[in-house]
Design brief:
Elements (H helix, E strand, L loop, with lengths): L7 E8 L4 E5 L4 E5 L3 E5 L2 E4 L4 E5 L5 E5 L5 E8 L12 E4 L3 H15 L2 H17 L2 E2 L11 H8 L9 H5 L6 H12 L3 H18 L4 H7 L5 H12 L3 H5 L2
């Protein structure tokens, strides 16, 4: 029976601005997180914000593009095909607990100093955390549903992110209750959570363009920067200033 340190590898990478990893497919599964990269699989493009990771099963071709203007730290946990079924058979975005980062950081440290027994124990905890994490088809699910598609188009419109969700929903003839029910059935996420994620992605993209926190706050409908900062930290575990320096 193989030991976990033969089935799981933790690797760290540093990406410089505009770095590009060409198309490739790994024999092992890849779970990538920490840095903000664009990962493309076929025609789909994934951007995984902080506290989310992207799981790519074995033998699926993909490429990576650095979208940061600064050096980005990135972690890839490679999972042997014999245990990759514990996670998911298809590409998934996984929600991570804040302490997951500390677990991985400690595992890397223990491996470097040769504490193999405790390192093996942490690998099991890390695998359990990945296996039990909440999964999504994407951080920001999309829909082609005839009723929902135009609604979510409005909800994610940059020019309307400052408008209350209820205000936008009231513009459609279908009742808000029915919209909420359809959203849960079709997308497995609440409208509030979906729109919060849309705002987070917009905020991150603006931070990368050196837009001020005050201006982003205003565009998202916050009267005070402190309210926006609190919202951002609640969803990412980090402040906007920290993200802008990643």
């Amino acid at each position: 029976m193989q030991k976990l340190n033969e089935l799981i590898e933790i690797q760290e990478f540093v990406f410089f601005p505009k770095d590009h990893v060409s198309w490739h497919a790994c024999l092992w599964g890849d779970f990538s997180f920490d840095g903000i990269l664009q990962i493309q699989v076929g025609e789909q493009k994934f951007i995984t914000p902080p506290y989310f990771g992207l799981w790519i099963p074995p033998k699926i071709e993909h490429c990576c593009i650095s979208i940061d203007d600064q050096v980005t730290h990135f972690v890839c946990i490679r999972i042997h095909p014999s245990i990759s079924h514990k996670i998911a058979p298809s590409i998934k975005t996984l929600s991570l607990q804040p302490f997951f980062y500390a677990l991985v950081k400690e595992a890397i440290r223990l491996k470097k100093i040769g504490q193999h027994s405790y390192y093996h124990h942490l690998l099991q905890v890390i695998l359990d955390q990945i296996s039990l994490a909440d999964t999504y088809n994407d951080y920001l699910p999309q829909t082609n549903h005839s009723i929902l598609a135009p609604i979510f188009s409005e909800l994610s419109s940059v020019n309307r992110l400052h408008k209350p969700t209820s205000k936008i929903l009231s513009e459609f003839t279908i009742s808000e209750r029915h919209i909420l029910r359809l959203t849960h059935q079709e997308m497995n996420i609440s409208i509030r959570e979906w729109r919060d994620r849309a705002k987070i992605l917009y905020a991150i993209s603006q931070l990368k363009q050196n837009t001020s926190i005050k201006e982003i706050s205003y565009k998202l409908g916050y009267r005070h920067c402190s309210s926006f900062i609190e919202f951002f930290k609640r969803h990412t575990g980090k402040t906007p200033t920290h993200i802008s320096r990643i």
